[in-house]
Amino acid sequence: MKKRWWHNKTAYQIYPKSFLDSNGDGIGDLRGIIEKLDYLKELGIGIVWISPVYQSPFVDQGYDISDYYAIDPAFGTMEDMEELLAEAKKRDIAIVMDLVVNHCSDQHEWFQKALKDPFGPYGAYFYIREGKDGRPPCNWRAYFGGSVWEPLPGYDNLFYLHMFAKEQPDLNWENPKLRQEIYKMIRWWLEKGVAGFRIDAIINIKKDLRFSDFPADREDGMCAGTTMLACAHGILDFLTEMKEEAFAPYHAFTIGELFDFDQQELKRYIGEEGCFESIFDFAPHLLGGSDHGWYNRKPVTMDQFRDAVFESKAISQEIGMMANIIENHDEPRGVSRYLPAEGQTERGKKLLAGISLMSFGLPFLYQGQEIGMTNKMFHSIQEVDDISTLDEYQTAQEHGYSNDEALVLVAQMSRDNARTPMQWNGELHGGFTTGIPWLPVNENYHQIRVDEQERQENSVLNFYKKLIALRTDAVYGETVVYGRQEPFLPDQPDFTGFYRKGRENTLLVLANIRETPRTIEVPLAIKKVLLDNCSTGHKAEETKETAAGSPVCMQGFQFLVLEVF
User: Fold this and answer.
1) For 395-441, how does the pLDDT look when each residue is reduced to its tens digit (9 = 90+)?
2) Catalytic residue at 200?
3) Domains and CATH numbers, the chain
4) Of 524, 520, 489, which Cα lies nearest the Cα of 506?
């Protein structure tokens, strides 16, 4: 693998609206991020991805952009953005912005001009089609529910396409003029000093241009938009052009959000000839899903998590480096989602962190993950802000669930779980704001917060710091970053084990994912214990070498990183 500057980094996603509010208006902002750059540096972060801060009506929390060249006043000014870039550079932190170009806001100048002249040049920036006797052109379902087609205001039998909310019209990538506008905007931001982009929902930019019906998969007579995407071919032509015209001249770091792609084509997305530097590894996140809705999801076990990771790494590590994530702004908190109830403790949180950060790939933390933040308890649907959760709540009700039952079902997956404000200290609202937060802080901020964990040597936060430090360690860094990942005892229940085999040393990762102790026979001799999530466990400097085949007695939810030979 050709080495890249970002390979030994650890990345961190900031959801700016919920990170830190510097002016007391209840909304996190760019100056709040600037204030916490030293915190991120001390954590060991080298790349920061900032979710959208562009001008937006906030129908979908900033993923509906009305001006790609402007900072929304809720977050600050362009001068604040420039200061953030400069201060991050001083600390050797690369800033990555969100690139949202599958769609824009219906308030964007392009769409407003398209409304005035649907058959003119800006109408061609979108998918505007005639309906079937007043009905939508086809039966595709939007991600947030309902048809992907919305009547064009002021016109009979004309519809525009939106894969997400109706206020987010999809951009027509078939139009070369539209593509050039996007590339110009990308180059503008790269010239300003951003290191690259996280590329949102990019698999959606190529549509099945037949715009025909597919077999219905729900009682509403519609089919999931993903069904259409499986029949849309040619996306790589668009992505290759974007790389050549916008990214490559600036050596930009690019990481794509791809769910539905052909694994046989992975090498065309990442690696030496890939369209992107990396993509997120969503293999564990796809577990338990249902075409019927969140109400029909199945619980996910840590063994399923393990198997998904192993299967993904078997394919990807031969090609390039994907990004490992436990959670993000679109997912619930990983601690609440993956760990069994009895394992949602400090020890279990460290175990989950260890499995993720010791796996082959670029570690991508989400704000609050480093202190083990959990899902929020929702007492009423009125507490929910997320548009997707509200749609799933209605879907659950339509399938016979009571209000209380529907709330419990959708709360497990709500995107608001990850969007509650960051928990900095024990002050009001967790130190996030001196005003009224735009979304209520999780009630457990008194128990789970940054300042308390900074003081505790064995905290979740400090365990993350140790894991991150291994990536740049003079002795073990090469193995942690580039070492081959090979499963160890992959059929053992409630257990995850794997080797990381480098040129100079071999590490063995062991995780006992149950309350009861177990004994694991290690086939190689143990030279050293590098990490142990149990405060009463061995310390590396006290460890004595053991012979091959020696038993390792593991406590409940114990996590170990061993050097073996």
Assistant:
1) 999 999 999 999 999 999 999 999 999 999 999 999 999 999 999 99
2) yes
3) 11-102+176-379+422-464 (3.20.20.80), 109-161 (3.90.400.10), 482-564 (2.60.40.1180)
4) 524
The rounded distance, in Å, linking the Cα atoms of 309 and 283 is 7
Q: How far apart are CA 62 and CA 46, in angstroms?
A: 24
Look at the block and give the residue holding tokens 């030979």. Answer: 565
For 493-550, write each residue's pLDDT tens digit. Answer: 999 999 999 999 999 999 999 999 999 999 999 999 999 999 654 444 445 678 888 8
Catalytic residue flag (residue 491): no
Average pLDDT over residues 364-391: 96
Which of the following is catalytic: 257, 281, 327, 391? Answer: 257
Given 200, 386, 416, 563, the catalytic residue: 200
Give the DSSP H/E element, type plus range, for residue 454.
helix 450-455
- Tokens at residue 281, please? 């590894």
What string of DSSP letters covers 102-161?
A: SB--TTSHHHHHHHH-TTSTTGGGB-EEE-BTTB-SS-EEPTTSSBSEEEPTT-TTEEEE
Tens digit of pLDDT for each residue in 85-130? 999 999 999 999 999 999 999 999 999 999 999 999 999 999 999 9
How many Cβ atoms from other residues are within 10 Å of residue 198's Cβ?
28
What pTM did the predictor assign?
0.96
Q: Answer left, alpha or beta for residue 256, where phi above 0 means left and psi between -120 and 50 means alpha.
A: beta
User: What is each CA distance from 270 to 207, 254, 265, 535, in whole angstroms?
Assistant: 22, 10, 9, 39
* Exposed/middle/buried for residue 544 (C-beta within 10 Å: 0-12, 13-18, 19+): exposed
323-337 in b/e form (b: 16+ CB < 10 A) is bbbbbbbbbbbbbbb
Q: Kindly report the average pLDDT of the chain as a whole number.
A: 96
Give, as one character, the DSSP assignment of residue 54.
Answer: E
